Amino acid sequence: MPHIDYFFATISPFTYLAGTRLEEIAAKHGATVTYKPIDIMALFPRTGGTNPKDRHPNRMELRAQELQRQSKKLGMPLNLKPAHWPTNAAPSAYAIIAAQNAGGGDLGALVHGVLRACWAEEKDIAEDAVIRDCLARAGFDPALADSGLLVGAETYAANLEKAVERGVFGAPFYITDSGQRFWGQDKLEDLDLHLAGTL
Questions:
Q1: Does domain 3-195 have CATH number 3.40.30.10?
Q2: CA separation, residue 137 to residues 13, 119, 134, 149, 152 (Å)
């Protein structure tokens, strides 16, 4: 059974645009997925990147155009300048880690729900009420927002270290058990083809 380690950030617009396609691809190929939320703002400087606020205007202009094109192509609403971005991504990451450990709900729906809240619904994903709502909508106990904070913090930090070790430098980032790496929501088709054995 193939396996995918999924490194992502809950404040990443490109992770939002991935939607639930990873889950569809995994189901198609009988693959398992381990969700690994990471602190993207800490990852960038450690892997040769630059945080958005420090990027040259040329790069940010293209980023904005690309986000608009991709959101239109995918039929997904996206606010280029969300009311609550950047925000503290740690609370939502901790909740996702707790939900993955607890089981019983739809983890892909939870991840996408958090991202949608940030990028399409003008909600602050650092707020407890928002996280609780996302948990409930995905079939998890909302109380998970308050549990496992220490484990969540430790796992979140460990995910960042593992990401650096394994060659991750952005989000979303997918790594198969064979060591193949795919960066970006626009590479999900390639991941699908790889799992099918044609790429």
A1: yes
A2: 21, 17, 5, 21, 21
